[in-house]
Amino acid sequence: MAKATDGDGTPVPQRLLAAATRLFAERGYDRTSVQEIVEAAGVTKGALYHYFGSKEDLLQEVYARVLRLQQERLDAFADAEAPVERRLRDAAADVVVTTIENLDDASIFFRSMHHLSPEKNKQVRIERRRYHERFRALIEEGQRAGVFSVATPADLVVDYHFGSVHHLSTWYSPDGPLSQQEVADHLADLLLRALRP
Amino acid sequence: MAKATDGDGTPVPQRLLAAATRLFAERGYDRTSVQEIVEAAGVTKGALYHYFGSKEDLLQEVYARVLRLQQERLDAFADAEAPVERRLRDAAADVVVTTIENLDDASIFFRSMHHLSPEKNKQVRIERRRYHERFRALIEEGQRAGVFSVATPADLVVDYHFGSVHHLSTWYSPDGPLSQQEVADHLADLLLRALRP
DNA sequence: CCCGGCAGACTAACCAGTCGGTATGTGATC
DNA sequence: GATCACATACCGACTGGTTAGTCTGCCGGG
């Protein structure tokens, strides 16, 4: 079999995905040409279209990766053995940390989702909805248990928190005064304080 | 003088701006061709390039309009005669309402800002920063007065709130269960509750 | 000898911006 | 009040450049 890795040790599909992620985040999906991606990955168009059906498939793959990762982590935190306040706090802080750790994916996610074809967009929305639901269920559990205020509908609270997460890619910089963990703690704090009965 | 309005009563530059706003929000800046804009406005390219220097100028004009509007409104609320809690609450709720009222502009703003050339981008950032500062000053005033918690840096609180505002264009629908005012009240509530000492 | 894994030239489409042209209004001059 | 000069407001064909995706073919291992 011909080599799938070349000079670098990592396989070509992953190199392409990594290059695409960086470039999409840097200049945006439409402003990144397929030619630039393959050059950054050290291959040619032939290689890209051998592994991916289209430029859009590349974008979708970035989404799928992020979604899988975040859903896994949320499930782990939500299903842990601990009081609801604790589980929500941990989940809320964790999504901040992992978002900051993958800021490129995050900015692609929020800026380029509408570039997907209707069907693929629908698919992504469905998965995102599942994530949203799980988070909401946590809040509703706390509301039923009386530890969270019921003044605001749980749905809106979820959107409130994820708005701030979404927003991270706009302002967070690793060179800023706050570390990832500090930001995560603060944002989780704000959420829980807003939910105090 | 030749007509600047034609069949429709509104002047051509405004028709162009309105068409561009709708299309940019619908398909994104890069996916909207100049040809589509002029067709939607019922004119031709000659007219567009007569009034605007480039496609990018059109985008910048959309920004400038939103920024002016929001800054004016914030200033009015922030400088009012009332306790800080009240002024912050009113300002926080108002930005939600005006954002929902101009959802097209909002989604363009947050999705297409990086399509501007570096200089124009810088200009927009400067104006946005001024807005941010004014909002932050309100929170700090409340913190000094002891009516807001100092647990979270004011900067972060501002980003927290504007994250949720930013996010509105992703999920809010006028056909949903909540009216503009209800959403605004809830989000302002969440902010103030998070700030309770 | 066959097939996965690629190279790279090629194509068909598209698009921002230009440019020469037309039509209508306005102000000055005689 | 007729003529001329000039400006504003637009039209639409054209250009130069870019781009996603295709296709033919080479190359090396099983």
From TrEMBL, chains A, B:
Residues 33-52 bind DNA. Keywords: DNA-binding, Repressor, Transcription, Transcription regulation. Residues 10-70 form the HTH tetR-type domain. This is TetR/AcrR family transcriptional regulator. The lineage of its organism: Bacteria, Bacillati, Actinomycetota, Actinomycetes, Kitasatosporales.
